[in-house]
Design a protein that fits this description.
268 residues
Length: 268
Amino acid sequence: MAPAGKANERAAADAAAWMFNVVTSVGIIIVNKALMAAYGFSFATTLTGLHFATTTLMTVVLRCLGYIQTSHLPFRELLKFVIFANFSIVGMNVSLMWNSVGFYQYVHFLQRKYSLSSFNLLGHTAPAQAASLLLLGPFLDYWLTNKRVDSYNYNIESMMFIILSCTIAVGTNLSQFICIGRFTAVSFQVLGHMKTILVLIMGFFFFGKEGLNLHVVLGMVIAVVGMIWYGNASSKPGGKERRSHSLPTTRQPKQSGLSESTELDGKV
């Protein structure tokens, strides 16, 4: 394939990954807000555990279909990841701004060091995160809300929202790792800012003016200007994004497993 064709194909894959992450991340925040505001389900940590339990089921299916191959992640690294990721993801229940550069760098490090695709890494981490959050979540939620998750008045409507939230979470978790594998840390931060803006705008339409004031609007405008400036600067010759896409691959023969993983991510 011609270089121009490959560049266009990669650009299309990047746009698809970006959009996949934006739609699922914003969607899950809106659904969770509706679940908590309309049905009083305030157990955010337990809900996150349910998200990863559902994601674990998805990784089992992917393994059966051959999209997840046998790979190795040391227990010590897995434990550090679970602690780090749980703090980050629980924080995202409060704000999408918790898409931190530190989390990006750690995940990217693991993928490169152990030649793990997004699917493989998720296959290692989702079960551990589900177990830890489902064990600790009810106690943490009780400490935060003074309510017990087992005493919640479950009904058909609230269960439908919980199932919908868990379903969208599968896409959110998967797209998160795909984006980490494809974009730079700064791009990942820009993605987080854009999602925050969309959540505020959609929250205004669905839930009224709560949380939207002059300072928030001004911050949104500044963020949009920053995203436009960053996109323009990085696309110019010598820009960080362009350099990252044009680095030669012939100097990295030891990372053949990583290149296979990247190709697999690009098919999603």
